[in-house]
Each structure stands twice: as structure tokens, then as C-alpha cells.
Amino acid sequence: MIRIALAALIIISACGRQSAGPDPIPEINAEDVVSGYSFLTAETQALQDDDFANPGFLWVDRGERLFESTQGVSQSCSSCHSDGLVGAAATFPKIDPASGALINLEGRINMCRKDHQQADQLPYTSDELLSLTSYTAHQSRGMPINVDTIGQAAKHLSAGEDYFFTRRGQFNLSCAQCHNQSWGQKLRGDTISQGHGNGFPAYRFEWQSMGSLHQRLRDCDTGIRAEPLPYGDQTYVDVELYLAARAAGLKLESPAVRR
Amino acid sequence: MASIRLSVPSKAASGDVIELKALIQYPMESGYRRGSRGEAIARDIITKFECTYDGEVIFKASFGPGVAANPFLSFHTVATKTGTITFKWTHQHGEVWSDSAEIIVT
């Protein structure tokens, strides 16, 4: 008798869960949106704010040299972009009008290399690409994220959103469970932030180096024991767009310093 | 080529205590880590740093495998004369990187 009742209970609760679906995780209220900077220790904030000691500037400096260099390319980046690229990074990822594809800053820079400099694409994790991305992103420091999410971008936005809310990995966790539901709480020695991309490329102590947003995403996926996607993967670019849209108005900080 | 950043005041009054700062891009691979397949990663570090002011050594440091990547140094000296301040890093295998800045002392 008890056994039957228990079985019935399990069936009922299983049905209940199915019909109601998993508890939806709400989005962060617009007025609560804050940068990962606010979760750092005072010392790390001070390092980020110091334009000399912030080690990210080593990559910004190198990026500037590469931007002006003609070595291995038909013409320098600066020969076309003589006024620099102020504000450009704040609008990425964006749709490339020619191909209709959603591309991030790394993709755009490599496109310029291929189409305008008759040069090889730089590997995603190369110091050269990281330096050029850092130099470009730094020119938008302090500017609000301002991405386009309508038209052809809309389907990428929803693919990114889908990835963000889907549970994955051996730990069966979604990005949203940590970054929407648990921000401000501790995970090991770290404080979980809201998971915005506004500081990237960023210098991470754990990497002892500058790194791209995709490197950060791969670390988060690895952390929940999910298979990380390859660098530059289209789904990660879609996630990048969703992250930018969810952080719209937040100011770019690259080169940020993170733990 | 390693990226180097220096901070040296361009002007100072004679007798002023001035702060000098230097940052170099280097991985400082300790030699104690292993790669994802268990292979040893060879040590690859800068072992010496030297700063000279108008040819005279004013600061020296030795780095070991425990020093973090992209080492940052900051130290003070007294401004004595107009001249060149040179910063020099030496790799474990002898390669040298250096950069310098001018200071005008009145």
C-alpha cells in the first residue's frame, strides 16, 4: 500500500515537473547590471585602473606597433584606418554586410588581413591577434556596449540566449544558474559576477596573460565539465552577441584585470 | 621582441626622490609545470635585471622561477644629473632586452 502511494507520488511529481517545466531563471534587472569590476578586490581594481602597471597594456602597446607595421602585409592597418577605430569594438559582434555572417572583432580583423592585406589569418590564440584585438578594444574603453540585435542578427541572438540558458556538462549547469541566479555568491575563492564580456580581452592572473572572451567561455564550460567549443566557434560568437545585448549600456573596460 | 613599458619622469629638480617603474612582457615559465599530456614544460625565465643611471648601477635584482609572468618593478632613486636611465633584463640563456629614457635634472 505504502509502496503504491509512493509510486503514485513519484508519478505525480514527475508529471508536475514536466507540465510546469524547469523553474525559469529570470534575467538580471536592467538597474542591477554591473561589471565584473565591482566584484574584484580593491587591489585588483587598482591594478586595472593603473594605466602603467596594468599588464594588459603590454598587449595594447604591441597591438599599436602591429597596427602600424607593414611587415608581412601588403599595407599597414593604419594606412586604411588612419583615424583609428574609436568606438568600433563597442558594436561587435555584428553582421558583415557582404557575407551576412555574424562576426566578432577577431573575425573582422582577420577578414581585413585576408581581404585587404593579402596576409594569412592569424590563429585565434596567437599573441598577434590578441594584441590587435586589445589595441582595438582599448580605443572603445569607457564607451557603452551598443550592438545591433535586429534583422539578420536576431537568429544569432536567440541561439546565444539558448546556449546561455541550457544546462550542460557533467555538472548539468547553465550559464544562467551561475551568472543570473548566483551572482554575488562565492564559488571556491571567487565571487561569481554577472558574466559580462565588457572587460575582454582581459588580463587574468590565472592565465598569467591576456586572453580573449572565448578563452573565458571555454574556462566556464570546462569548469562545469562540459566539452568547450573551439576558439572562434560560431556558437560562441552568438553567445558573445547575447552577452553584449544583455549588458547593453555597460562600458567597455579592456584591458580589464581579472582573477 | 618582448614588450617593455618604462615610467621615468622627464624632468626633476636635483635632489628629488623619483620613482622609476618598469614592466616587461615575459611568460616566466617556472619549469615546474606539466603540459596536458604530462610532459615537463622547460624553464624559461629572465634571471637578472639591472638599472643604470648615466652608466652607474642604481638597482639590481635576481629573478627565480617563483616570479610571476610579466614582472613589474618599481623603485626610487635620487635625481642627480641630466642623463640616460637604462633598464636591462637578461634571460637565463643570456639574451638581453633593454630600453632607456632620458631625464633632465635642473
Overall 3D form of chain B: elongated
Q: State the name of the first-level CATH class of chain B.
A: Mainly Beta
Q: What is the assigned CATH homologous superfamily of the largest domain in chain A?
A: Cytochrome c-like domain
Distance between the termini of chain B: 35 Å
Taking all Cα atoms into account, the compactness measure Rg of chain A is 21 Å
- Counting copies of identical and different chains, the oligomeric state is heterodimer
- Looking at this structure, what is the CATH superfamily of chain B? Immunoglobulins
What is the string of helix and strand elements of chain A? HHHHEEHHHHEEEEHHE
Which CATH architecture of chain B is right? Sandwich
Proportion in helices of chain B: under 10%
C-alpha-based Rg of chain B, rounded: 16 Å
**What class, by secondary structure content of chain B?**
mainly beta
What average pLDDT do the residues of chain B reach?
95
Strand content of chain A: 5-15%
What kind of sheet is the major sheet of chain B? 5 strands, mixed
Q: Provide a count of the helices of chain A.
A: 10
Query: Average pLDDT value of chain A?
Result: 92
**In what range is the share of β-strand residues of chain B?**
over 45%
The CATH architecture assignment of the largest domain in chain A turns out to be Orthogonal Bundle
Q: Which term fits the overall shape of chain A? A: globular
